[in-house]
Prior knowledge:
The structure holds two protein chains of two kinds.
Chain A: H1 2-18, H2 23-60, H3 64-69, H4 82-123, H5 127-141, H6 148-157, H7 164-188, H8 192-200, H9 205-234, H10 237-242, H11 251-261, H12 266-299
Chain B: H1 2-7, H2 9-32, H3 34-54, E1 57-58, E2 66-67, H4 71-77, H5 80-111, H6 116-125, H7 133-143, H8 150-154, H9 167-195, H10 199-207, H11 212-223, H12 225-239, H13 243-249, H14 261-271, H15 275-299, H16 305-311
Antiparallel strand pairs in B: 1-2
Amino acid sequence: MSTVLKSSAEETSAGAPTNPAAPKRGLGSRMRRLNVPAGLGGWIWLAIIIIPVYYVVITSLKTQAGYFGQNPLALPTEPTLENYQMVLEADFAKYFMNSTIVTLGAVIPTVLISFMAAFAIVRGKGRFLKLVNGMFLMGLAIPLQATIIPIYLMIIRLNLYDSLLALMLPSIAFAIPLTVLILSNFIRDVPNELFESMRLDGCSEWQTMWRLALPLTRPAIVTVAIYNGLHVWNGFLLPLVLTQSPGLRVLPLALWTFQGEYSVNIPAVLASVVLSTLPILVLYVVGRRQLLSGLTAGFSK
Amino acid sequence: MSNTVSTAPKTEAAARTATAKGGQRDKALAWLTAPALFFFVAFAVVPLAGVLILSFASWDGIGAIGSAGLGNWFSVLADPGLYNALGLTFLIMIASWLVQTPISLLLGVFTAGSQRYRAALAVLYFLPLLLSSAAVAIAFKALLDPNFGLATGLGLPFLAQDWLGVPHLAVGLVIFVIAWQFVPFHTLIYQGGVRQIPKSLYEAAEIDGAGTIKQFFHITLPQLKYTIITSSTLMVVGSLTYFDLIFVLTGGGPGNSTRILALDMYLRGFRANLMGPASVIAVILVLIGLALALFLQRLGGKDKQGSQLEGM
């Protein structure tokens, strides 16, 4: 069942590429004529994206001497993992764990409660639900960063300052509007007949939600989970303001302090940049199709 | 009113039971929103009200909170630093929009094509989104080192500048790095938008003999109207929050040349321990965000407001 659903979700979100054969030809020939300038632009942008990434990766493999002595874009003559070793010894594992805890602790509740809210908003009609939906939509327009000072105050008053929980709670709130929006877009695409037949079978809304809407929304759930995970994992302001102990640093904050301490050792600093990105890269490689097709559908309706 | 009741008692009763049922169902459904509502109200709506209240308070971040009346507002509004930050915020916002929109629109159209290599390119384009702003800022700092960075590597001496030391260069750099980080995301949005344009439009245009450029301006661009508005809204409202990147990249410097509003708020509040004035800045930030979002929605036409918001 899930493969069928998945492919249908992909089709709605990414039409052209998953649809093989005939109609593609027209588009293909149209695109081919655009090719020269567009293709050139595409490759130039690729260079703009890739050169910095390449620079960071190769520099992280250089020794200090190699960094000072070589052409910056040349491959290291004596590649070394010494920088990585140094970073790993500098409590990287702890920061990694902190980031993982905060990310999971924020993303799982976010997705769960947003899914329930999105289901209610799609299925219900009353004024209250409209109001709730309107409030979440307004949340999209408000730079929630602007609320950091009262959040800081609240976290202190709740006695949560300098704890990982302090990072999760606001992260959940910040992620709800967009998550509800994307999930409700997906739930809205569930054919009404399915809901009707569930109702005729005597299922309550609660059962319908878990047994019908949840499995059907799975691609979108994976999408928002990855998207929110990315945001929380990379979040900087909340950890900066709400924690202070070195033992509670999350990766972006650790990067920043590491950079302050080791600014003379650029290869080591860049090794920490690479290391902090690796887990997300792995996640991306695993969930890429989901993420891309889900985001496409979620944003460009 | 009594008239209605007497003329149609039957339908009235029927309608009442129907709404009662619907009402009950709505009540059950309403409870499902409770947890999300709780978190959102507790950590977004309450702080939003809190920031307004704190803008009238005097607080150093640690001690007791006192009242400042309108004092914070007067002092902030009289402070040239505010106007510097406001101007910069809008400059970076507009420049970012002008730089990012055409690039991501064209890349989106380009990558929506069907060849395999374009799909591969699109995958690589996505890379910057995986990096945290802190990582991006640190990487670019190393990259811009005049001796050991890109300038030497590429043999392009014009890149060997004191990027972080000269005000207008630092502003330009911030705009560039923001584009580097966020164009990929908007490319993705446009790619999705282009793929939803019905192929038949292009086929018809082709039969009519419209060329590629004509097709782009007469079909692609108008069809992408709502995608453009969605992307622009995210871009413009998002630009109010480029805090992390600028904080790590320039710290607001040199001088105050990259001190945008969000950074100004942080530095006043958490560095200078003036939470009251910082809250004033935060309120201004919220007002700007709301005004911009409403303005962009209007652009899309009132009738489509609902569906546009859905698209966001």
